[in-house]
Design a protein that fits this description.
By secondary structure, this protein is α+β, with helices and mostly antiparallel strands. The chain folds into 2 domains: 75 residues, no CATH class; 68 residues, no CATH class. The chain has 7 helices and 9 strands. Strand 8 and strand 9 form a beta hairpin.
Length: 192
Amino acid sequence: MTPNLNLYPPEGYVFHDPKAGDIVGGNWPEVITKLRAYRIGANLPVGAPETEVYEQFCRLNPSHCHGGELVNGQVQVQVKRGDYPMAVMAWLSLAFTKVNRQKLGFVSKEEAARRAELCANCPKQQVWKTGCMGCHQNIHLLVDELLKGRKETAVAKGLQGCSVYNEDTRASVHLDQVEDERSAAPKFCWRC
């Protein structure tokens, strides 16, 4: 089961963690990000925060969810990986974690600018941010924190998401990521 994102949760966006207590956010991706960050900071196994958050919410509020099945009295959540905004948010959260753990670095500002120019003209550029203004502000704060003072060009600030790699291109053009050839990517893509 997955929460119906068009319905506001009765208790708000909250996850009850046995060690951390209540983790509260302005939306589900924020709660998931906070849970992941708590576990990383506490040196605990990260687990599957997205599935755990949705499973707990849907078990307590099945009328606010759709899909899934009951197994041994538990609601089995199936996170839809094909959901573009959620996939990009998951990528952004993982990128943030990797940068904070110093497992992912940055490219030069010249390389980031070159990549941004390519992405700006790409037909696979797609708006991924949906929902309320608070959600948009949280996403911008997360991207700003991820890029911490890196100089962005006007082109880079206007980037959206990549529908091939399910990533926020405003952030991804700055990250030192491994190249990855995919058949759906345009031949001029910097990732190929």
